[in-house]
Amino acid sequence: MDAECFEQIKEPSRKAYVRVWGQLKDFNSEFDFSEGPHGEDLLMNYFKDLRLEKKVASSTMWTFYSYINSIMQRKYGVKLQAHPRITLLIKGFIQDEKNKAQFFDEVLLKQFMVEKMVTAYWEVRQAITIVAYFGGLHLKECLELQLERISRGPEGFSITHSRMKQRSEVL
Questions:
Q1: Any alpha helices (H) in 9-92, and if so which ranges?
Q2: In a 3-state reduction of DSSP, which class is residue 170?
Q3: pLDDT score recorded for residue 115
């Protein structure tokens, strides 16, 4: 009966639905899913495990909720909205902490940019730092800089690079 249910789901996302449903069945291996829908407590334990043990993000939990809801509607004719405690449980979890990007200490960065460098090795890195900082380069653009495209002339350094149009674009 699972196969019949999954045939109704469009191909691109079908694998994700099958994977999430399989995880739910594995978590509740003692329950016979062919007999009917499982109860609210069983689902609440599943979502608690996702959040507290597996450290799944809130957005992912809502995606899993949506997948399971869709499958249960197709398979049993039951909506998860009939179990408001599940929704309240997911809403009640503390919001995810976003990892903030680390950044350089402003004083140390300025000191590095104005310091006289004794070797070409550090001069080039100083130039890259200045260009990245004042040019607003993305990390990908900094990584794509090539030493062969950095030259030093009487007016200072000249750096040739390709500007990315979008973050995901690879040039």
A1: 11-27, 40-48, 58-76, 84-92
A2: coil
A3: 92
H or E stretch at 123: helix 120-135
* C-alpha to C-alpha distance for 40 and 81, rounded to whole angstroms: 11
The residue among 48, 58, 2 whose CA lies nearest residue 25 is 2
Rounded distance between C-alpha atoms, residue 115 and residue 124, angstroms = 13
Write out pLDDT tens, residues 38-60. 788 888 998 999 988 888 888 88
Under 8 Å between Cβ of 47 and 38? no
Identify which of 30, 38, 68, 34 has the alpha carbon closest to the alpha carbon of residue 50.
Answer: 68
Degrees to nearest 5, angle at CA 1 with 68 and 64: 10
Taking the domains of the chain in order of start, what are their residue ranges?
Answer: 2-92, 106-159
59-87: pLDDT as tens digits: 888 999 998 888 888 888 888 888 889 88
